[in-house]
TrEMBL record:
One of its GO terms (biological process) is riboflavin biosynthetic process. The keyword Transmembrane helix does not apply. This is Creatininase. Pfam families: Creatininase. InterPro entries: Creatininase-like_sf (IPR024087), Creatininase/forma_Hydrolase (IPR003785). It comes from the Bacteria. Its cofactor is Zn(2+). The lineage of its organism: Bacteria, Pseudomonadati, Pseudomonadota, Alphaproteobacteria, Rhodobacterales. Belongs to the creatininase superfamily. Transmembrane segments: none annotated. Keywords: Hydrolase, Metal-binding, Zinc. GO terms for molecular function: hydrolase activity, acting on carbon-nitrogen (but not peptide) bonds, in linear amides; metal ion binding. The keyword Disulfide bond does not apply.
């Protein structure tokens, strides 16, 4: 059940019998040859596919996040940490006020993880509130699947290249880009990051056969769905 395809009365009736929802967190940042909205697209879609058989509402992805290190790439938008923390808290407070108690955050961007303590503060402040923060792409089973398919995989490589993040009419580079270790990026500003990683792929093939990415997506969706179905107490 997508919030974008529902009216308020339908959500009110849903809340009479269930209090779960999915909140996707994305961002707008460079992804080499892929869409600048890749993280938002993936977070919302994995949440949607996971929740569909359960009838759990999925909110639109929060399209902006924390990505200051990519500000040398035009089209990237970043928020300040205080701004983002306040935004996430306001969203969670709104969900609680209207009747939601169990929130699965499906996060599509590693840079967003510093706001995870906000979810803990929210649970502490609101009786009965539960929140799970799920980095879908690096959850245990999903990451194990990535490693089985091709261990050289990272930001903007094949592991984020799906039909729904690919841009029509753009040709993908061939070959495997050498991996750039994350610790080499931590002491650089945005211009230094761009000088190090070039087009934005951190390392790996730009695209793999659909059978590989279909397999990865299936694991990711099932792992996400298990968090919705599992015990919340």
């Amino acid at each position: 059940m997508l919030i974008s395809e529902s009216n308020w009365g339908e959500i009110e009736r849903y809340l009479e019998t269930d209090d779960r929802c999915v909140l996707p967190l994305g961002c707008t940042e460079q992804h080499a040859q892929l869409s600048l909205a890749t993280d938002s697209i993936l977070a919302e879609r994995v949440g949607r596919d996971a929740a569909a058989p359960l009838g759990v509402p999925v909110f639109p992805a929060v399209a902006y996040g924390l990505t200051p290190y990519f500000m040398a790439y035009p089209g990237t938008v970043t928020l300040r940490l205080a701004t983002y923390a306040a935004l996430v808290r306001d969203i969670l407070d709104s969900l609680y006020a209207t009747g939601f108690r169990r929130v699965l955050i499906v996060n599509g961007h590693g840079g967003n993880t510093p706001v995870q303590p906000v979810t803990m503060e929210w649970m502490q402040a609101n009786p009965g509130a539960r929140c799970r923060f799920h980095d879908w792409w690096r959850a245990p089973k999903t990451w194990a699947c990535v490693q089985e398919i091709d261990p050289v995989a990272s930001h903007a490589s094949w592991m984020e290249n799906f039909p729904w993040t690919r841009l029509a009419g753009r040709e993908m580079p061939s070959g495997q880009k050498p991996f750039v270790a994350f610790d080499r990026l931590r002491d650089r500003n945005a211009e230094g990051v761009r000088a190090l990683i070039g087009d934005g792929n951190y390392g790996g093939l730009y695209q793999r056969p659909e059978e590989d990415t279909d397999r990865l997506w299936d694991v990711a969706v099932k792992e996400t769905r298990a968090l919705l179905e599992g015990e919340w107490e």
